[in-house]
Design goal:
The chain has five domains: about 120 residues, no CATH class; about 100 residues, PAS domain (Beta-Lactamase); about 110 residues, PAS domain (Beta-Lactamase); about 100 residues; about 150 residues, Heat Shock Protein 90 (2-Layer Sandwich). It is built from 18 helices and 17 strands. A five-stranded antiparallel β-sheet has the order 2-1-5-4-3, sandwiched between helices. Strands 7-6-10-9-8 form a five-stranded antiparallel β-sheet, sandwiched between helices. The protein starts with a helix and ends with a strand. Bound molecules: adenosine-5'-diphosphate (ADP). The site of adenosine-5'-diphosphate has 23 residues, from helix 17 and helix 18.
Length: about 600
């Protein structure tokens, strides 16, 4: 019972007043109609039970006592006059009436309490169902929606009343209806067992949403069997899954096109996962084969094993990203060049937990690089041969000189021998001069022949100053032909350089001959100065300067383009080949104007072995 005392009393008083009036009317009517005490008593009892459904226990007790008194008074002697006689005559009525009223009232109270509790519980559960973000449907055996929660209807853009009574199939996308039907049929065949499936539903506005449906076919008591269906909106999850699937597909396609495979290795389990392209690069079929760490290591070309192990070990120690190139041997024996990059992944505590990386198949790139290198080597040789062809006259002169000297020496020698008393000392000196001049001629021919030779570039330790001297000797006659003096200032000294002698000679030859040509038409001093020195950054720097016409204005960078020439018979290959030779040696070649006139070409070369 709730409420404060005065208000409860007021309520009891009101109930008693109302009940009293009702009972008085009934008793009076029973009496006037001559129904007798039993019938009137029964009517009063019924009225009391009805009143007790709404009223309190106290008012029921008071009213039943008042009813007994009134019945006794009206149908027997007045109770105050002969109550004792009444009780003696009709004890059963006097006891049974209030007792029945009390029991019925008490029972009714209990039922009312349980009904209230039930209704309250139903109310709570309904509130929960309405608020849960799950769609609930009750569907009869024919597939008609019996009931749906507010959320479920709203999720599809309907009011509850719009869906109730409609065939449930209508809310599913047509393409998924047979799947839904199959699942409902299976549910009906296995009552009590849940089935779960995913299907698309259609919103009232036509939008499609994905649902994870959980259904069960049940029969409660004698009622008709029914499908209990709950479904959860999984559109976002599906969209995310689709986005992941799509990006995975794009990634795989990109990897296939770029010949890039990716991999990850969990260091706690040692398990390696590899992308399909990675499996393909290693010559296996992604649909059938798996790639693991052992297979990957075993695939490294035997000649690259030691180097690869070293790089991996060093990389693991450094804890930083590392990359390297090596060869792999596929199961069919073909060799591929790959570029590997590895990235360490650290866990929360800073411990190394995983490696991820990429492997790129660079074989095609390597092959085209090799082809390009070969083409450049051939081009460089053509350039050398052309240059030497142009130098034929000077070289003939250069060779001629020692030969002429040797002939003169031989004549002198003969003369000394023809004397009556041959001066053997003079004879020896003349013979030695013959040998020297012969050797010089042979040396010039030998050097020239080396420039013609075809062969792979060969690097050897050498001193740049020697190379300069040799080249100057070779071009001495050509320079004097055009009244050009070549001066050398060689200060590079001994630092060792690992380079291709013939190629460096070719660079110097190109620069010196260009200088001579630039001065052909120039009046005044014609001088080529060649300087060598060690630059601040420990690189060798060589400069070839002239006092010629100077660089073509605003075309300083174009000079190095292949086939760029300002000469009527020029090939435009000299500078471009020279630059590629120098950069293949790890250095740089560039041009600047010379002061007060002419041009200066400089190149650098690293002293460390390349
Ligand atoms: P080529 O000598 O066949 O023209 P190069 O590549 O050796 O080809 O030279 C390209 C161009 O650079 C020359 O045509 C010339 O215009 C310019 N050049 C090269 N060396 C000099 C120099 N020492 N002085 C002025 N211009 C030069």
């Amino acid at each position: 019972m709730t409420g404060d005392w005065p208000s409860q009393l007021r309520r009891i008083a009101a109930e008693c007043l109302f009940g009293g009036v009702v009972l008085a009317v009934l008793i009076f009517a029973g009496f006037r109609l001559g129904l007798g005490v039993a019938a009137t008593g029964f009517i009063c009892l019924t009225a009391l039970v009805l009143l007790s459904l709404r009223g309190s226990l106290t008012s029921s007790v008071l009213l039943s006592a008042a009813a007994v008194a009134a019945l006794a008074y009206i149908f027997s002697k007045p109770i105050v006059v002969d109550l004792k006689a009444y009780i003696t005559r009709d004890v059963a009525l006097a006891i049974a009436f209030p007792l029945t009223t009390l029991i019925v009232t008490w029972l009714v109270k209990g039922v009312r309490k349980r009904a209230a509790a039930l209704s309250e519980s139903e109310h709570h559960w309904r509130a929960i169902f309405e608020q849960t973000p799950t769609m609930y449907f009750l569907i009869d055996a024919n597939g008609t929606v019996q009931s749906v929660n507010g959320f479920g209807a709203a999720q599809l853009g309907y009011a509850v009343s719009e869906l109730a009574g409609q065939p449930v199939m209508g809310i599913f996308l047509e393409a998924d209806r047979s799947l839904v039907q199959d699942n409902l049929t299976l549910c009906a065949q296995t009552p009590g067992q849940s089935r779960v499936w995913e299907a698309r539903k259609i919103h009232k506005d036509g939008a499609v949403l994905w649902a994870r449906v959980n259904a069960k076919f049940v029969r409660w008591g004698a009622s008709e069997p029914i499908f209990l269906v709950s479904s959860e909106d999984i559109t976002q999850r599906k969209e995310a899954e689709e986005a992941v699937r799509r990006s995975e597909a794009y990634l795989q396609e990109a990897q296939r096109l770029g010949h890039i495979g990716s991999w990850a290795q969990d260091l706690s389990t040692g398990v390696m996962t590899a992308s399909p392209e990675m499996v393909r690069i290693f010559g296996r079929d992604p649909a059938k084969d798996l790639l693991n760490v052992t297979l990957t290591r075993e695939s490294v070309h035997p000649d690259d094993q030691a180097f690869t192990n070293q790089v991996v070990e060093r990389g693991a120690k450094s804890g930083a990203d590392f990359e390297f190139e090596h060869r792999i041997v596929r199961p069919d024996g073909t060799i591929r060049h790959v570029h590997s990059v590895a990235h360490p992944v650290f866990g929360e505590g800073g411990a190394l937990v995983e490696y991820t990386g990429t492997v790129m198949d660079v074989t095609d790139h390597k092959q085209s690089e090799e082809a390009l290198r070969q083409a450049y080597t051939d081009l460089a040789r053509v350039n050398r041969i052309t240059t030497i062809g142009e130098l034929t006259a000077s070289l003939a002169h250069e060779v001629n000189q020692p030969i002429a000297a040797a002939v003169a020496n031989a004549n002198a020698c003969l003369r000394w021998l023809a004397a009556d008393t041959p001066d053997l000392e003079e004879v020896r000196a003349a013979a030695e001069a013959i040998v020297r001049n012969g050797a010089r001629a042979a040396e010039i021919i030998g050097r020239t022949r080396r420039l013609f030779e075809k062969g792979a570039p060969q690097r050897e330790p050498l001193e740049i100053d020697d190379v300069v001297r040799e080249t100057v000797l070779l071009l001495g006659s050509e320079a004097s032909r055009y009244a050009v003096s070549i001066r050398t200032f060689l200060a590079a000294g001994a630092p060792e350089l690992v380079a291709d002698r013939v190629q460096l000679q070719q660079v110097l030859m190109n620069l010196i001959l260009n200088g001579i040509e630039a001065m052909r038409e120039v009046e005044g001093r014609r001088e080529i100065a060649i300087r060598s020195q060690i630059a601040d950054d420990k690189q060798i720097m060589v400069s070839v300067s002239d006092t010629g016409v100077g660089l073509p204005p605003e075309q300083a960078e174009r000079l190095f383009d292949t086939f760029f020439t300002t000469k009527p018979n020029g090939t435009g290959m000299g500078l471009s080949i020279s630059r590629s030779i120098i950069s293949a040696h790890g250095g740089k070649l560039w041009a600047e104007p010379n002061e007060p006139r002419g041009a200066v070409f400089r190149f650098t070369l690293p002293t460390a072995a390349i």
